[in-house]
Amino acid sequence: MSKLLEKRTSLSSFSDLTDMQVTGGFQMSGLLLKKPMGRPSNKWSKRFFVLKDSFMFYYGETEKKIFDTKIFNIHPKGVIPLGDCMIEEATLPNLPYGIRILPANADKSDASALYLGADDEDSKQEWIRAIEQSSKITTLNAELSETMIRSLQEQLISVSKERQELFEKFIKVSEEFGAERAKTEELEAFNFQLAEEKVRIQMFVDELQDTQETIKTYIGLTKLNVNECNL
């Protein structure tokens, strides 16, 4: 079994979804040759690849015609996570424009690597640059998301603490000088503003946490039943 996190999948967890309209967000797409992984083989298959964020989706060769109509099929033959992968040029027999992708923390053997073949030197270099950039997205997004969540959680705690302290202060003042109507209205207005701010920050925190969990779940799916797709 290959250590490359390449999942043979129809993405069953997303079976309730349908094909989506292509509206952008794809770094690159095109036809590449793909060599089976995990065992010696001289067989090469032409596949249509779509590079999106930190993943490479691949399909049968005919998928290109569908993609060109601005439809993105969310049920690929396979998904290749690129987070922190090593990408390099490779020259193989009868394949002068090869690309070698080695997953993070994998051994250096060919059994762990994915080999792709481009049509020419320009195409090869373009794919390498795009894959290298995409391989950094997962780590950067995760770190940024976690940092933002921590910061917002700290803000939420601070606002809640400040709200409580000021509320207690106004109560004390009201008790000392009498519950004047003006002070009561001022207290209520201030308390309402703080409550709104707390809700706003909490909603933002929840949204970021949902996004982070979606990313982690999607990455986790690619780690389940890791098998080479020899289609």
Automatic annotation (TrEMBL):
Name of the protein in its database record: PH domain-containing protein
Superkingdom to which the source organism belongs: Eukaryota
Domain PH: 25-136
Organism: Ciona intestinalis (Transparent sea squirt)
TM regions (residue ranges): none
Pfam families in alphabetical order: PH
